[in-house]
Amino acid sequence: MSLTDMFLLVRPRRQLQNKLTMAPTGTTLFLIILVHIWFCTLLFISNTCKATRPTPKFPAILVFGDSTVDTGNNNYLKTLFKGNHYPYGQDFPGHVTTGRFSNGKLVPDFLASMLNIKETVPPFLDPSLSDTNLVTGVSFASGGSGFDDITGSVGGIIPFSKQVEYFKRYIVRVQGIVGEKEAKKLISSAVVVISAGTNDFGFNFYDIPTRRLEFNISGYQDFLQNKLHIFIEELYELGCRRMAIAGLPPIGCLPIQITVKVESPHDRRCIEEENLDALVYNKKLASLLPKIQSLLPRSKIVYADVYMPLIDMINNPLNFGFLETKRGCCGTGLVETGPFCNSLTAVCDNVLEYLFWDSIHPSQAAYLYISKYLEKKSIPELLDYDNQSQPLVTLFDQTG
């Protein structure tokens, strides 16, 4: 082959290479511009979402109490009183049995969401807690506990004294994440929710009259509120400043109380004496909390009324979409709770029509109404506070 022939063979390849290295064609240029616009649009949307994300009203939520606010701590205890089995949690996101004593979310979960903190409040004992979930708040509550030391003492649950100890461990862990200074700021700015008392009266006074041997009803109310006073002071000494203290529900309307006290199974009237006791207790509590607040500088301690929203739902069920208010959705609704509400137990066809999930605990729908009531009545008092610290929204993405 001559040199001329070889040149002719190589020339087309060079021409092709030159075309590939030339300026892009109109079609190629259009695609490049389109991709650039698409990328810029995504970047704009991302920045806009970050800029418009609601600022949390509190940097964290800290929860103490009984099964009404236990989001799963009992799962990690040697106790029979657990809610980590079906049908509990059947309406929780993902239909997960989390240990909450309801078919879905509890009041702390709804409040955390309403306050733009996060969607749910995890239990402190969950070993898989992320730093973000820990710093933005947890529940220390334990189903079966109460202000009285003997409440649930044989049930293997977490008494209030132990909940304080867990809170001390929590503070140390938070200090390790954000530093001592920021941890102190976070604790003082967090909203603290305390809900207990029903078990004390049910276990120790009404159904098993242990405390009736030494107290009348008024004396026992004062005894419990003195215990609460001490507990509030302990939390204050550990840095808490903003606290919402729940009163008692209408205990006499709990399905299990009606079952125990009423002779006829067809008579499902509330036990008015127990409801009156709860009202007196709540009146005392509402009077006591401002006095405690006056003794603790720069604190804000408010009464959270759960009696009124519940009794309103009981007396006017149709206004809330309920058809059944005197028995739970699980089983017969008369006695089933905890281990007796299980995967072998039948449940109602439409839980949205039931105020109570089991014989003690309200349904998710009822908890939502209670949360909305508290958001309107109690939370504004905590927000009206002259010692607000800057929320730690710059430290963590508060999406749960």
What does this structure look like?
The chain has 400 residues and is of the alpha/beta class. The protein has a domain at 56-254 and 271-307 and 364-383: 3-Layer(aba) Sandwich (Rossmann fold). Helices cover 44% and strands 7% of the residues. The chain contains 13 helices and 6 strands. The protein has helices spanning 3-21, 26-52, 107-114, 131-135, 160-178, 180-189, 198-206, 217-237, 255-261, 272-295, 307-315, 364-377, 379-383, and strands at residues 61-65, 191-195, 242-246, 300-304, 324-328, 354-356. It has a 4-stranded parallel sheet. Residues 2-23, 40-51 and 387-400 have low confidence and may be disordered.
Summarize the helices and strands and which ones pair or pack.
Blueprint: H1 3-21, H2 26-52, E1 61-65, H3 107-114, H4 131-135, H5 160-178, H6 180-189, E2 191-195, H7 198-206, H8 217-237, E3 242-246, H9 255-261, H10 272-295, E4 300-304, H11 307-315, E5 324-328, E6 354-356, H12 364-377, H13 379-383
Parallel strand pairs: 1-2, 2-3, 3-4, 5-6
Helix pairs in contact: 3-12, 5-6, 8-10
